Amino acid sequence: MSAILKHVNYIGCYRILIVFLAVWLIVLVISAFPIISTNISSTDTKTTERLSRALADLEALRRQNEELQEIFKDISVNNLNDEQKEAIENFQSRLNKAEHSFNSNNLGYISSKEEPNTQYELLRRRLYSNTKELWYFIHSGLLDLHKKSKSLIYDIEQLAEVDGYATWREREANDLSNLVQERFRFLQNPKNCDSAKKLVCNLNKGCGYGCQLHHAVYCFMVAYGTQRTLILKSKGWRYHKGGWEEIFKPISDTCTDPTGESVSNWPGHQDTQVINLPIIDSLSPRPPYLPLAIPEDLAPRLTRLHGDPIVWWVGQILKYLLRPQEKISKIIQDTMTKMGFKRPIVGVHVRRTDKVGTEAAYHGIEEYMSHVDEYYNYLELKRPVGQRRVYLATDDPKVVTEAKNKYPHYEIIGDPSISKTAAVSTRYSDTSLFGIILDIHMLSMSDYLVCTFSSQVCRVAYEIMQNYYPDASAKFRSLDDIYYYGGQNAHNVVAVWPHEPRRSGEMTISAGDLIGIAGNHWNGFSKGRNVRTNQIGFYPSFKVKDKIETAKYPTYSEMHKNKENED
């Protein structure tokens, strides 16, 4: 009997946590409506429709919360332990601060303006991110309540759908992408190749396909930063001996000659015409353009639009580089049609073979599929899903068979023959190249991605995914690492809340501390090093925010001058 009571109290503790979060979320939403009412005196029909949708969503949220409040009446707060109380208090404090910020800055969820305030966009994403981290904390302690805690994330995500800025986000994403792609074309197509300054990059880095793509991206970043046309030397490429241009379109239509009057290895001199760039691992001195830095002139717009600007920036470079030749494009489209690729679909990448036990730990298919289940359960809060579908990419053909046998209620789309070509012995064949191109393309087009970020294939798919949404920074679940770029500079976060250790292994942090992040443990805590104290330890993930690094890239103002002269 005592064991049953103990279990009931344990369940009650987490129900109280959910109740508090739901109640405070409603307070936050309600607090915005006085602001809304003051801004709609001269609204048009479109704004009125937005208000109606928001009111309907609020009413649904109230109804959803009634059930939780009934649970709250019968449970004592005394059942909470210190850790749970601290989580509630910190989250309440965050929401109070958010409410004050909304009121003091006249930020409503609906506005007659076409563009949102930057602070609004940052705050909206931070509320989503912090609630997700709190969900990790709850989920790691009690799996039975994951559906109710996940619904809070859904409620916050709905803000982006009812706040009236969806059209702006789409337009801003397109405008930024078009601007960057235009600059890339300008850089890569000089009027006179014979006199143009060039940066030569040899594609044959001794690593796998994803790693080689990231090598090409790094070369492009340095070329863009130094205003040098990138020359990609790819003849004899280990993945395709004929070179890059037989698979993807040339990165320049006017300049592919690597020669010049003066040639030097990196760093050379400003007046050196041709500079040969080494791999990032041996680059010295290191220029400011390396990840995780983004162009300074784009930063204000990009940080307002996107939750992880460096991923967007890398995705834009991949968008330019990975333009398939017509025959490759046809193979991709024909294969997608043959496989029956359609939405909704979750992309799952399971890495095995030579990586497990060296670069990455083993993760069973059950671990991947548990997160797939969570995504579809979350999706069903919005609408009926029908057939649950997974695109499964792996370098082990047995994984496809295992998944189909263990999850017959899922439609598992995967080709074991593609997996076989990823074996070490056949990895550098044309068949293997086509297979990995297909896998990355279909993973990137999925609605959600479950994988291990220790895999470069997974990270490339995530980067390319950013090109299909205004902001896809939250459309993933990594089973191991956080996002990183090989050879990157330090990934730092800034503490926005102080923290005193409550158990062994936690670090002390003060607001404003710079922390070098080592990883997220997906249980509400991350690990890192406090730069101020040099202490290494764990800290609550929601108490920090990313430090956005910028670099003074060229702004390519001459591109517009040339256009004016042509006109």
Task: Please describe what this structure looks like.
A motif (SH3-binding) lies at residues 285-291. Residues 51-101 form a coiled coil. Pfam families: FUT8_N_cat, SH3_9. Its EC number is 2.4.1.68. Disulfide bonds join 193-255, 201-219, 207-211, 451-458. The structure is a single chain. This protein is an alpha/beta fold and 567 residues long. The chain has 4 domains: 2-164; 191-295, no CATH class; 324-478, 3-Layer(aba) Sandwich (Rossmann fold); 492-548, Roll (SH3 type barrels). The protein is built from 17 helices and 16 strands. The protein has helices at residues 2-38, 45-73, 82-104, 118-141, 146-157, 159-162, 166-188, 209-226, 299-305, 309-321, 326-339, 365-379, 397-406, 416-421, 430-444, 456-465, 557-566; strands at 198-202, 229-233, 263-265, 274-277, 294-295, 346-350, 388-394, 410-413, 448-451, 476-478, 492-495, 514-520, 525-530, 536-540, 544-546, 550-551. The strands form 4 sheets. A 5-stranded parallel sheet has the order 8-7-6-9-10, with helices on both faces. Helix 4 crosses helix 9, helix 8 (209-226) packs across helix 10 and helix 8 crosses helix 16. The longest helix is centred in the N-terminal third of the chain and has 37 residues, at 2-38. 37% of the residues are buried. The model is unreliable at 1-16, 26-44, 67-78 and 101-112 (pLDDT under 50).
Strand order of the largest sheet: 8-7-6-9-10
- H/I helix tally: 17
Give a count of the beta strands, DSSP E runs of length 2 or more.
16
> Low-confidence parts, pLDDT < 50 over ≥5 residues?
1-16, 26-44, 67-78, 101-112
Please describe the biggest sheet, giving its number of strands, its sense, and whether it closes into a barrel.
5 strands, parallel
What structural class should be given to the helix and strand makeup? alpha/beta
